[in-house]
């Protein structure tokens, strides 16, 4: 590219030589390719290719274009201008679609204008230099760190602006915020304290506007991210933003409309109040900034570094809050102003009681909270949430057509919004659980398959642990031989990642030393990584595994070839084994067993040979070692002559020591290698020397018991705090739970754990240190008795018997709330259960959400009373709490912030006074004073005794009775507040269930403003809680049916393909019938894939256990070596053949060998006639398989058959290792050929029935009357007839029609005694239905069934089959 600029430079520093200038010009032109090179035409000029000619033409056109712009561009003097430190302004010129140049000014002209030009030219030159330096290079990188924090800070301010401006604009006007009022004379009155608070809020709002204005300017220079890089051109960036809708919505959101409104509307003090009210409405335009939220959440979702569930949960919370605020605004706007319709409650929902919103007085401040602006806001939110969550208590309802219309819109918005959240949450959970469900389905299928084949329990446990280990390490994303973590990466990137694995091979194996790095990279894709749990065999004696093993992590033990119990060596990371099978293709002579969790790298010989074939010296080296018999004999001899491995033991002191001294000595020696402080050394003495194993039964029982006790303790503490149960026995029970928690802390110091290397750590100091670094401090804080400190500070014990006794216990209840923190163990416990892939998720699901439901519903039941009934400081004294109700008219804001707590309005020194605790006064007095006023008002106008108030002769209210707060809660309805604790708990529990399940009968609803706020969060949380449970159930159901859905989608695709190809109908039915039979036998699971990915030794042993019956059933394989059986078991595949289908046909090539395990087949010859029958235990197709000839006979299934097949290529590889088995098979093939020839000859020579010539000469068109069949024979035939189970009549009559009639019968039976309707028509209808049910029972006894092999049974025998078929009915 070409660039230029202007800059200031001294004239004496510029070279004035024309030669130097020409030389610089020439070099600059050479660098940019502008110089026209001389073209020498010769003999080769006419032989140039078409591509060269095209390039030459493009260069010529480009040169002509540059010549045209030469006068505008000048000359590129980059080296000169760089040397002279001169900046050059630039302008982009478009040459073509693929090239851009920069318009430059002549540098000498720029220097002249900058130093010697006129004042105007100097300013223009300085401006160009300033713009080049500070503007053209400035842009905002959307992927930079600054923009990352700026965007998140801006989103926070957007949310603050939205809620603040909508609240001030519609619920709190500026005159109320500033405390300004205009009296009748036009004088302005302002409250100083209120004005200060209002000014601070307004200033904060305008500070947020400053940030939005800055962001609006930054978006013009925000870089554009494309697939090919980032565009930093200022014009392009600005045009991109100007052409978007965001430019105009952002401008409208920051435009100060209220300033113009002030200028136009304000003329005198009389209009000041109206102008201030209008300001709030006009500043609502700031809420338009929320239009940037969808784009922000889309950006977060597209970023792979963010968690999708976290982003969606944050999005739902923000959207729910915003839509609730908007709906509350619309509902409030539909209601009339309380000052206009306060005396007519039927005009609007705002005037009705509840909510009973009162007008705000401009001359005095009312003490009733219902006249405050905040009560209007909470009431609107409360009603909006009740409609959006479909709770609908009925305490607030629309009173006119407009309110009904808006209420309908709000309900539809709420239903759609929560439905959308639920749908997205379901999809998210389903996608998150899909890999786990798929992997777990594979594991459970393997378990069922092993149990079906009755494998040994030890083999089953080994297979389950190996599969579970794959999930715990790689979440099932890396399965050896199936899929790899690096499968989606390019080859060079995959090779770089596996350099660490290759280095292990280089360091440990001698044959790979001095090997070239490029060759090792070729081997990288062939390396496999296997994970082994402790106690698992990697190699067993006699295995034939052509792989080289290198230990990467963990420790293994090697056993003697002749004594499998004697350990002869311990293998550590970096060591290798398996060279006997890898180099010599011999059976292994020693077994290798893991001691700890091990990670082993393997290299198959076949993959190595593919690479080594191109490296002559490496191939020659390995071949030479493989042919060295002495090396093999030395390995065998060394293994057989090895002695038992002796562990190094601690040297014992010859001095006799006492028992205590031995313990001290052992303690010191155990800690020699551990850095420990003196404090840790002292605390270690209190620990036991033994630790608790992770898989011990005691630990499992203790954890379950502790989990249940934590839930029970949570319930008891919440109920105690809410209903103020001060029984001594209740406290004793809770302190027993505390003792259990302390014992649990001590036990946690001794629980073993697995470190990063999957090694179990058993040292007590290490287990204690790990617990201290993890959850110890949380457990300690959750059990620390803070109430003891309060008792020590609170005074002597004699005060407990005073009037403040109940409140002292009330305080103890609240201080003990720290015990609730122990509930954190519940999600951790279920997370640990779900982490175990071997656990059935269904059982965990029920326990998990059952426990969560108990915790949640108890919390919702108690939290309103816990918040509304706090303990009082003054009640702990002997005088008690006596308050005189406030009769001053003050607003709720001043009640909360500006009350003079030292005045006589609340304390009378001549009467019983309360302790003037400043903390109590600032935190509780304003609320209690207001509630006292409300309590007295309601008690005076109440005709019943549902509200209890204790006062003295002077009218002072005694608040020492804690249960008085129940009369100010929702429990006041239905006269529940003064009933026993059990009744109050049942009523509160009833309210919690009806509210969270969105039922809302309306018998209990919010009584105070605090309850409105609590109920808002309760309704929203209840909707989301039950929605989350429903989403989890839906996701689990979708994932559980995934395998069935995939299978039937495949079947549907096959049907469509067959129909599209216009295949015969009979063939299509055969294909569909086979798929149905395949689903019956396999349930969509391929048994061959169940053991894929397991270690080679375990794969061979597991396959042998699965197919041992099949192999032993073949007589020729009974006495073969164990290694041959293992290899054979790994390559055979199950095959299911329906009755009437062919296994092989005449003329098929012998590529497969079949073993008949169950069922029978019949032989068909070339003549089309069927010969003898072959039962299970025979080999099919061995002649064509071994002789490589075409089959001379066909085999057709006489019944549903189970076969096992193997391919010729795989079987030949096995036979190469066992030539003696090949010889036996050849002998068997020769005998089979002779036997088939004999059978065919005997079949052709069999006597055939002779037909009479007279019968042959009879005309075929003569009528032959049918012989009559006796009725008795027909009856016997019908009596023995058995229906097929797939007959449409049976399917629709037995399953659908009769089921519907049974429902009708049950409804009639229940209807008659319930409603005392004994109509005569019911009795014959009952008998007709009973006759149909008896007929259905007879039909069911005559329906055949399919056994587990898919074989249809239609033979009827009262002695044997009747009971069997009857059991199949239900």
State the main characteristics:
28 strands, Cyclic nucleotide-binding domain-containing protein, alpha+beta, transmembrane helix, transmembrane, single chain, 1370 residues, four-stranded antiparallel beta sheet, globular
Description of the molecule:
With 1370 residues, the protein is an alpha+beta fold. The chain contains 52 helices and 28 strands. Strands 7-14-9-12 form a four-stranded antiparallel sheet. The longest helix has 52 residues, at 401-452. It is globular and about 130 Å long. The protein starts with 17 loop residues before the first helix and ends with a helix.
Write the SSE topology.
Elements: H1 18-32, H2 50-68, H3 70-73, H4 78-83, E1 91-96, E2 99-103, H5 107-116, H6 119-134, H7 145-170, H8 174-178, E3 180-182, E4 188-190, H9 192-218, E5 224-226, E6 229-231, H10 234-242, H11 245-254, H12 257-265, H13 272-282, H14 293-302, H15 308-334, H16 338-341, H17 373-388, H18 401-452, H19 457-474, H20 491-497, H21 499-508, H22 517-523, E7 528-532, E8 537-539, E9 547-553, E10 556-559, E11 567-571, E12 576-577, H23 579-584, E13 592-594, E14 598-604, H24 605-612, H25 616-626, H26 629-640, H27 659-670, H28 678-684, H29 697-723, H30 728-748, E15 753-754, E16 760-761, H31 764-773, H32 776-783, H33 786-794, H34 805-815, H35 825-835, H36 841-868, E17 882-883, H37 892-897, H38 918-941, E18 957-958, H39 981-996, H40 1009-1040, H41 1042-1060, H42 1065-1082, H43 1096-1113, H44 1122-1131, E19 1133-1137, E20 1142-1144, E21 1152-1158, E22 1161-1164, E23 1170-1174, E24 1179-1180, H45 1182-1187, E25 1194-1197, E26 1201-1207, H46 1208-1217, H47 1219-1244, H48 1253-1257, H49 1271-1279, H50 1288-1315, H51 1322-1341, E27 1345-1346, E28 1352-1353, H52 1361-1369
Keywords: Ion channel, Ion transport, Ligand-gated ion channel, Membrane, Transmembrane, Transmembrane helix, Transport
Membrane topology: Multi-pass membrane protein
Subcellular location: Membrane
């Amino acid at each position: 590219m070409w660039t230029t600029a202007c800059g200031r430079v001294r004239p004496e520093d510029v070279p004035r030589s024309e030669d130097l200038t020409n030389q610089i010009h020439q070099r600059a032109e050479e660098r940019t390719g502008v110089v026209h090179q001389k073209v020498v035409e010769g003999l080769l000029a006419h032989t140039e290719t078409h591509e060269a000619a095209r390039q030459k033409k493009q260069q010529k056109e480009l040169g002509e274009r540059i010549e045209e712009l030469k006068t505008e561009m000048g000359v590129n003097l980059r080296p000169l201008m760089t040397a002279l430190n001169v900046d050059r302004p630039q302008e982009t010129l478009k040459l073509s679609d693929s090239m851009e140049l920069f318009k430059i000014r002549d540098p000498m002209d720029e220097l002249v204008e900058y130093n010697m030009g006129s004042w105007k030219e100097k300013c223009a030159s300085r401006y160009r230099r300033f713009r080049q330096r500070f503007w053209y290079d400035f842009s905002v990188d959307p992927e930079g760190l600054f923009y990352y924090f700026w965007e998140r800070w801006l989103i926070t301010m957007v949310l603050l602006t939205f809620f603040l401006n909508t609240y001030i604009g519609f619920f709190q006007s500026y005159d109320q915020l500033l405390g300004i009022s205009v009296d009748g004379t036009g004088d302005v009155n302002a409250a100083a304290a209120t004005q200060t608070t209002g000014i601070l809020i307004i200033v904060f709002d305008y500070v947020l506007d400053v940030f939005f204005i800055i962001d609006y300017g930054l978006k013009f220079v925000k870089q554009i991210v494309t697939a090919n890089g980032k565009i930093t051109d200022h014009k392009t960036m600005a045009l991109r933003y100007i052409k978007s809708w965001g430019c105009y919505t952002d401008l409208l959101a920051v435009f100060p409309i209220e300033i113009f409104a002030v200028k136009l509307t304000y003329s005198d003090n009389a209009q000041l109040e109206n102008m201030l009210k209008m300001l709030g409405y006009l500043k609502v335009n700031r809420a338009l900034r929320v239009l940037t939220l969808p784009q922000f959440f889309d950006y977060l979702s597209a970023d792979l570094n963010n968690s999708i569930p976290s982003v969606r949960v944050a999005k739902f919370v923000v959207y729910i809050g915003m839509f609730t605020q908007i709906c509350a605004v619309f509902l409030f706007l539909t209601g009339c102003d309380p000052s206009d319709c306060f005396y007519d409650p039927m005009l609007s929902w705002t005037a009705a009681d509840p909510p009973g919103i009162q007008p705000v007085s401009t001359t005095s401040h009312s003490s009733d909270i219902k006249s405050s602006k905040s009560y209007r806001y909470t009431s609107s939110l409360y009603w909006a949430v009740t409609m959006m969550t479909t709770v609908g208590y009925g305490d607030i309802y629309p009173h006119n057509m407009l309110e009904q219309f808006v209420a309908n819109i709000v309900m539809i918005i709420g239903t759609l919004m929560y439905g959308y959240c639920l749908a997205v949450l379901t999809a998210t959970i389903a996608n998150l659980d899909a890999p786990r469900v798929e992997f777990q389905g594979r594991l459970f299928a393997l378990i069922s398959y092993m149990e079906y084949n009755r494998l040994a329990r030890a083999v089953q446990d080994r297979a389950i642990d190996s599969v579970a280990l794959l999930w715990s390490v790689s979440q099932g994303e890396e399965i050896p031989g199936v899929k790899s973590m690096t499968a989606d990466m390019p080859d060079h990137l995959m090779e770089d990642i596996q350099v660490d694995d290759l280095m292990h091979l280089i360091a440990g194996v001698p044959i790979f030393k001095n090997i070239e790095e490029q060759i090792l990279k070729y081997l990288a894709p062939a390396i496999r990584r296997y994970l082994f749990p402790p106690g698992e065999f990697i190699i067993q004696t006699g295995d034939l595994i052509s792989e080289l093993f290198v230990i990467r992590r963990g420790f293994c033990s090697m056993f003697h070839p002749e004594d499998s119990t004697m350990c002869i060596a311990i293998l550590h990371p970096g060591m290798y084994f398996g060279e006997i099978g890898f180099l010599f293709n011999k059976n292994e002579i020693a077994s290798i067993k893991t001691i700890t969790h091990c990670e082993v790298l393997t290299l198959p010989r076949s993959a190595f040979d593919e690479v080594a074939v191109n490296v002559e010296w490496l191939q020659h080296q390995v071949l030479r070692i493989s042919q060295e018999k002495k090396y093999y004999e030395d390995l065998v001899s060394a293994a057989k002559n090895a002695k038992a491995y002796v562990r190094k033991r601690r040297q014992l002191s010859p001095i006799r020591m006492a028992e205590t001294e031995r313990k001290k000595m052992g303690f010191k020696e155990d800690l020699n290698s551990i850095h420990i402080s003196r404090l840790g050394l002292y605390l270690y003495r209190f620990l036991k020397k033994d630790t608790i194993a992770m898989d011990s039964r005691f630990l499992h029982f203790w954890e379950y018991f502790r989990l249940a006790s934590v839930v029970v303790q949570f319930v008891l503490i919440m109920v105690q705090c809410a209903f103020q149960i001060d029984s001594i026995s209740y406290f004793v029970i809770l302190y027993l739970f505390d003792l259990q928690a302390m014992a649990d802390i001590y036990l946690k110091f001794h629980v073993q754990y697995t470190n990063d290397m999957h090694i179990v750590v058993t040292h007590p100091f290490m287990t204690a240190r790990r617990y201290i670094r993890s959850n110890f401090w949380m457990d300690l804080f959750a059990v620390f008795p803070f109430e003891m400190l309060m008792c020590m500070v609170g005074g002597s014990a004699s005060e407990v018997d005073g009037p403040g006794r109940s409140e002292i216990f009330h305080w103890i209840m609240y201080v003990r709330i720290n015990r609730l923190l122990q509930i954190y163990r519940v999600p951790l416990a279920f997370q640990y259960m779900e982490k175990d892939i071997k656990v059935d998720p269904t059982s965990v699901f029920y326990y998990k959400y059952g426990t969560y439901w108990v915790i949640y519903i108890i919390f919702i039941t108690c939290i309103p009373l816990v918040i509304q009934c706090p303990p009082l400081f003054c009640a702990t004294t002997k005088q008690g709490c006596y308050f005189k109700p406030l009769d001053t008219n003050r607003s709720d804001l001043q009640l909360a912030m500006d009350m003079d707590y030292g005045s006589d309005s609340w304390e009378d020194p001549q009467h019983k006074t309360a302790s003037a605790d400043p903390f109590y006064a600032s935190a509780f007095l304003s609320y209690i004073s207001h509630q006292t006023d409300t309590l007295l008002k309601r008690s005076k106008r109440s005709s019943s005794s549902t509200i209890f108030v204790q006062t003295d002769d002077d009218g002072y209210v005694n608040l020492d009775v804690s249960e008085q707060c129940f009369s100010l809660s929702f429990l006041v309805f239905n006269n529940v507040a003064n009933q026993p604790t059990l009744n109050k708990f049942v009523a509160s529990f009833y309210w919690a269930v009806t509210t969270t399940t969105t039922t809302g009968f309306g018998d209990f609803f919010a009584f105070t403003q605090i309850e409105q706020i609590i109920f808002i969060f309760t309704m929203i949380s209840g909707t989301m809680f039950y929605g989350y449970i429903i989403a989890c159930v839906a996701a689990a159901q979708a994932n559980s049916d995934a395998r069935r859905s995939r299978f039937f989608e495949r079947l549907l695709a096959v049907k469509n393909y067959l129909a599209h190809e216009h295949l015969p109908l009979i063939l299509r039915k055969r294909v569909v019938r086979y798929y149905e039979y395949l689903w019956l036998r396999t349930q969509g699971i391929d048994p061959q894939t169940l053991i894929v990915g397991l270690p080679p030794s375990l794969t061979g042993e597991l396959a042998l256990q699965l197919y041992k019956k099949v192999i032993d059933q073949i007589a020729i394989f009974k006495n073969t070596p164990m290694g041959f059986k293992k290899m054979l078991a790994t390559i055979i595949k199950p095959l299911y053949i329906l009755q009437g289908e062919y296994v092989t046909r005449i003329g098929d090539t012998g590529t497969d060998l079949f073993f008949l395990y169950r069922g029978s087949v019949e032989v068909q010859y070339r003549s089309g006639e069927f010969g003898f029958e072959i039962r299970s235990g025979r080999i099919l197709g061995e002649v064509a398989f071994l002789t490589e000839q075409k089959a001379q006979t066909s085999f057709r299934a006489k019944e549903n058959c189970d076969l096992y097949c193997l391919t010729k290529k795989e079987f030949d590889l096995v036979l190469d290792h066992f030539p003696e088995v090949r010889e036996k098979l050849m002998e068997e093939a020769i005998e089979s050929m002779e036997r088939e020839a004999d059978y065919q000859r005997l079949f052709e020579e069999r006597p055939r029935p002779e037909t009479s010539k007279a019968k042959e000469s009879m005309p075929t068109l003569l009528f032959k009357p049918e012989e009559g069949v006796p009725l008795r024979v027909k009856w016997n035939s019908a009596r023995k007839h058995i229906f097929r189970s797939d007959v449409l009549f049976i399917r629709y009559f037995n399953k659908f029609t009769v089921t519907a009639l049974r429902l009708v019968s049950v409804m009639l039976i229940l209807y008659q005694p319930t409603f005392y309707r004994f109509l005569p028509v019911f009795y014959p209808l009952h008998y007709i239905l009973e006759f149909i049910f008896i007929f259905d029972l007879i039909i069911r006894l005559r329906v055949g069934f399919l056994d587990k092999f898919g074989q249809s049974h239609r033979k009827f025998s009262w002695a044997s089959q009747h009971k069997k078929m009857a059991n199949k009915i239900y």
